[in-house]
Known about the structure:
Helix content: 25-40%
Structural class: mainly alpha
Oligomer: single chain
Strand content: under 5%
Distance between the termini: 21 Å
Order of helices and strands: HHHHEEH
Number of helices: 5
Amino acid sequence: xxxxxxxxxxxxxxxxxxxxxxxxxxxxxxxxNNRYLRDVIAREMSPSQFISTALRAQAIAARxxxxxxxxxxxxxxxxxxxxxxxPRAYDSFTPENRLKIEVAMVGRYYMSTETxxxxxxxxxxxxxxxxxxxxxxxxLYPYMKSVPDPISLHPDISQAGHGHGMSQNGTGRxxxxxxxxxxxxxx
Length: 187
């Protein structure tokens, strides 16, 4: 939907799909206007600010989220209510940082439960101090439980996002092995 502000006024060019709605793109695709996961990772976690381990966690979470939507026959739009899909976001990075995204995507892993190979409903958000939150509907998503984040003790860390699922900045801190430094947001 070109009405969503996260893409219509992009410095990356005009929204490439015009008024076509819905738009169908490949999750793993590599063509400029057909590469959902590359553009989501590029927009959600800047490769210049996160190390490869954190980017890989983001790739797995984003892929799982997209596969779950396919499996449940639901749509994802390009608003920040879902994953932030900004066409051509990947192009805004240097070749070195694009390579980091490519490496993060290797393996095509996604998350499932011990009892099913189907993708789980996975969510992610920017940051939270001390502990993630359980999903509001644990009956549907029993695996989305609150977990402590002992390296998020820094007083500058505040809630950014809904708080359940993977904390992107928390993942970055864990991947670096740092002790509670906040990560500079990538947007």
